[in-house]
Specification:
Chain lengths: 330, 330
DNA sequence: ATTATTTTTGAAAGCGCTTTCAAAATTAGA
DNA sequence: TCTAATTTTGAAAGCGCTTTCAAAAATAAT
């Protein structure tokens, strides 16, 4: 290659990596030779010599649903465009498995890492710090955290949704939450609901918060459970949309009128929320933007910029037909 | 590292890569030193020296839905377990973008490649062949194809589903299909429907096959269109489940009784099929098995085994409440 | 025109591991 | 026990590129 261009290998390398450091006559000769020979740099050789792999790791709780899959697609596209390769792993909400993936990716020499949420063992963060690579925790926004976060304020979003239901007149709430242990996003959503209800002087007993693994059938089960209570709740806040789907499906099967008898609210505004009948009131979360901002942040960090993560991304309360004022005269 | 173990670097390398070629006393010393030093091989150095990257590329049309996401998760887990890294890209059903991803991955020196379907430019296959790496086309099974396929017989599955509807008494069919151009799986499903109806002497005019990009709203639109026909069809076969979701949702909104007035059948048995009301009759396709078999096949090929892809995986007709005999006395 | 400064370039070293080949060690057979 | 065959091991080379440093070339200042 260098021979064909009539320059040294060092000049070829400079033309490809720092073109401004090469005079244009030589640069032209190199470009011609690249074209003529169809030259493609050998990734491993570059990684070895430069001590940078140009690979970025991304560990999601799951990739088989639209929530994380959407962010992953955007993330991958942005980084591919800048010559980076994204290596994906799924943890299944299992902290041990996630830790294993982190170790494995670090061993593979990734240049940067995307993680979901901040709740994890300090050992993991120490491992990452020892490698001195940039990382970012997404789906959460916590300006007090020592970890760079890109996401939205789960507390405020849940609070806002709850305020809306309170303003509709609801006073009897339950919340369907994902497992709280190790899932800071789920914890934040519960916290947001608590804050709103506290602010309004509305009690939320501990047994009004039900905790299950994410899933539609779990939503169905919780719905059956709470609707047997007397008095039954008039508003159900779901910390994740599969729960809301399950609740809506179960209500239909049991001829329980939504929202006439009970309002149901979701969280995330995935594609099915607007298709259900009644269409779900929910919080729209910025999935694409998360993928995009995470890519931009890591790219900047990899360039050596000392930037802070962006301000929290916006969520929007999306009001649809699944919520209405509570039944009168109970 | 080799110094710590008191052996040569070549012996360390052999202990890690071909342990049978090392006597146990030396092997023990190397294992001790690895443990003591926390030694981890440098991936790029291994790739450069061995001319194998231990990376495997996987290009899916999309990864933000359960269909491909499920297979991806299984695929990644199997390969990670054998020390391989999976690099994922999404093509958005765009042939040019897919070609770009293929080139990029080949340039990155992947050891093997997973693709979806076989319909693509011969240039792409030539590029892959030039690199002399194993590849596999999934989601299709075609024993006559020159390309190794792992999947199921889309034709037979669609035929079987159609037979079932014919046996119920249906004679007026429409099919909602994804874009046929460049999507061999979609073509096969149309072909299967045609074969069944031909075999039963039932006409399927060209305008009874509607072609749209995949999506729920597209399913809604097609449903509205065909249900204004007089006589309207009594059975709708959807080549992909989002169409079926859309049809069911639209039927509910228009007070069209499913399956009393029109039966709706899906394809793939994704998680929502069983949750809808009425629950969808559909074809269960082996998503997990595809990911698993693809991983096993590529691993064997990378080991140098000359194996054929597995026999076609099984599909199952899943009969639920969305289908019934056609309305009597029309 | 000469000198000082800056920019460009090539030679050399080396990133961390694998492979090859020949020597050393071990095992098997007579 | 000796010889032949096989296995194990280490030294050396090198995978393809990047980085460093010193020399060469170009530019700026006097």
């Amino acid at each position: 290659m260098a021979q064909e261009a009539g320059v040294s290998p060092a000049t070829v390398s400079r033309c490809l990596n720092t073109p401004a450091a090469v005079r244009s006559d030589k640069r032209q000769r190199v470009e011609d030779a690249v074209r003529k020979l169809g030259y493609v740099p050998h990734g491993a050789a570059r990684a070895l010599a430069s001590k940078r792999s140009r690979m970025i790791g991304a560990i999601f709780p799951a990739v088989d649903n639209a929530l994380f899959g959407c962010a992953l697609e955007v993330f991958q596209q942005e980084l591919a465009h800048e010559g980076y390769t994204v290596v994906v792993a799924a943890s299944g909400y299992d902290a041990d498995l996630e830790a294993r993936h982190v170790r494995n990716l670090l061993q593979n020499g990734i240049d940067a890492l995307l993680l979901v949420g901040t709740a994890r063992s300090p050992d993991i963060y120490r491992l990452i710090a020892a490698r001195q690579i940039p990382y970012v925790a997404v789906w959460r926004s916590d300006q007090t955290s020592e970890h760079p976060c890109i996401g939205f304020d789960n507390i405020a979003a849940a609070e806002h949704l709850t305020d809306y239901l309170v303003d509709l007149g609801h006073r009897r709430f339950v919340m369907f939450s994902g497992q709280l242990d190790g899932n800071d996003r789920a914890q934040d959503r519960v916290e947001g609901v608590r804050r709103s209800l506290d602010r309004h002087g509305i009690p939320l007993p501990a047994n009004a918060i039900l905790e299950r693994p994410f899933g539609v059938d779990e939503g169905r089960e919780m719905f059956r459970l709470v609707m047997t209570e007397n008095p039954a709740p008039t508003a159900i806040i779901c910390g994740s949309e599969p729960f809301a789907y399950g609740a809506v499906f179960e209500a239909a099967e049991r001829n329980i009128a939504v929202p006439d008898q009970v309002s149901i609210a979701g969280f995330d505004d995935l594609w099915l929320a607007s298709q259900l009948s009644p269409a779900l009131t929910t919080v729209r979360t910025p999935q694409r933007e998360i993928g995009q901002e995470a890519a931009k942040y890591l790219l900047a960090r990899l360039k050596g910029d000392r930037i802070a993560p962006p301000r929290p991304l916006e969520t929007h309360l999306i009001i649809r037909k699944s919520t209405a004022p509570p039944p009168a005269a109970l």
